[in-house]
User: What shape does this take?
Amino acid sequence: MILTIAAAVFVFGLLVLVHEFGHFITAKMTGMRVDEFAIGFGPKLISRKHGETVYSLRAVPLGGFNDIAGMDPDTNTAGERGFCEKPVLSRMIVILAGATMNFVLPIILFFTIYATLGMAKPAPDPIIGDVIAEMSAERAGLQAGDLILSVDGQAVATWTDFTDKLKRVSPGQDLRLEYKRGEQVNTVTVTPEYNDKEKRALVGVQSSIVYESKSGPEAFTLAVDHTKEITVAMIEAIANLFKDPQQTEHLAGPIGIVQMSGQVAERGFIPLLNFAALLSINLGIVNLLPVPVLDGGHFVNLFIEAVRGKPLGSKAVAYTQRVGIALLLMLMLFATKNDLVRVFMK
Assistant: This one.
C-alpha cells in the first residue's frame, strides 16, 4: 500500500509539475503576472512567496494550477500584464505550453533511460522475465527467473525457440514445460489461451530484458521516435472509442491509475519512469481535445477570437464551460465505475 501511494504521488506529481510549469514559464516570458503556482489542490501544506508569485504545495496531489491574473477579463487587476490584455498569439502559446511539456517529458525520460541504461530488448536466453496474472503460467506456478529447458520434450535453446513452439500450439492444448529454478529441475503443464489482440495462443509469460547501450545522439533520436509512435497509437485508440463504444470498458480513472502505478513500481523504478512517460503523452493528448475547460477548448476559443477580431461573449464562454464540465464529469464517473469493477469484481 505504501509503495502504491508513493508511486502514484510521484507519477501524478511529476506530470502535473511539468504541465503547469509549461503554462507558468510561458506566462512569465510573455509578461503576464502569475499570482500563484500550485501543485495539488485543497489546503496548502507548504507556501513560499518569491517576487510576485506564491509557490505552494497542496494536500491533494491530483492536479495543480497557475493563478494567472486576468484570466477573467471582469476581474483583471494586472492591467497590461493580465492574460486578457495580451495578444492572442501570446495567450495561445501559454494555453498550449502545458500539453506541449507533456510531450517533452517523455522524450526526456526515454532519452535518460536510453543514454544511461541503453535500449531494452528481449534477452536471447529462454528465461522468464515476467508472469502475467491470472493466466495459465501463473496458475501452473511458473515464476520470473525460471529457465525453460523444453516444451513437450523438445529442447529449447533460446527465447525465440520457445515462442516458435508456442505459436504452433492450438488453444486449449496442454503443454508440458520443463524448467530450471536455481539448481532444481521441475515439470509443469500449461494450457495456452487464445488472445484476441495477439491473434494467437499465449501461456502468459514475457521474456527477460537486456539493455543495448546507445550513444547520446542515438538515444535522443530513439526517444523522439518512440514518443511519436506512442502518440500516434494513443490517438488511434481514442478515435476507436468513438467507432466502437465497447472499447470504453478499458478507460481508467484515478483509482485505476493509482493501482497501476503500484503494480508497475513493484517491477522497479525504470518501469515506473516508462509508465509516467505513457501517462504524460496521454495527458497531453487529452488536454488538447477541443472540449471546453480543457486547454484544447481554450485554444479553440482563442482561435475564434483571432478570426472574428474579438473574443466570445461572457455568456457564450460560460455556457460552453458548463457543457465541458458536464462532459468531463460524465467521463470521470464512467472511468471510476470501470476502476471499481476491476478492483472489486476481478
